[in-house]
Amino acid sequence: MKALIIDDERLARNELRRLLGEFADVEIAGEAANAKQARPLIAEQKPDVIFLDVQMPGESGLELLGSLEPPVPDVIFTT
């Protein structure tokens, strides 16, 4: 399963990466610190799931999710 981590807090991204590292079937394909970085990464990597922070500066995780074109990956909100 290909996953992306999208969170504005570096420590939160590191912790998610550490936790997900315990699952051999989860490949962390990349990470982004904001919606602007995330949008092209999602289009390029076509992940199965994104771990998405709800509150981020600028554009929120909910706004990012609402702007994605189908097919939209599964989302696990982190906050």
Percent of residues in helices: 25-40%
Strand order of the largest sheet: 2-1-3-4
Q: SSE order in H/E notation?
A: EHEHEHE
Mean pLDDT level = 96
Q: Any overview of this molecule?
A:
There is one protein chain. This protein is 37% helix and 27% strand. Strand 1, helix 1 and strand 2 (27-32) form a beta-alpha-beta unit. The mean pLDDT is 96. Strands 2-1-3-4 form a four-stranded parallel beta sheet, sandwiched between helices. By secondary structure, the chain is of the alpha/beta class. It starts with a strand and ends with a strand. The chain has three helices and four strands; from the N terminus they run E-H-E-H-E-H-E.
Q: Summed up, what is this model?
A:
With 79 residues, this protein is of the alpha/beta class. It has helices at residues 10-20, 35-45, 61-67; strands at residues 2-6, 27-32, 49-53, 74-78.
Write the SSE topology:
Blueprint: E1 2-6, H1 10-20, E2 27-32, H2 35-45, E3 49-53, H3 61-67, E4 74-78
Parallel strand pairs: 1-2, 1-3, 3-4
Structure characteristics:
single chain, 79 residues, alpha/beta, 4 strands, 27% strand
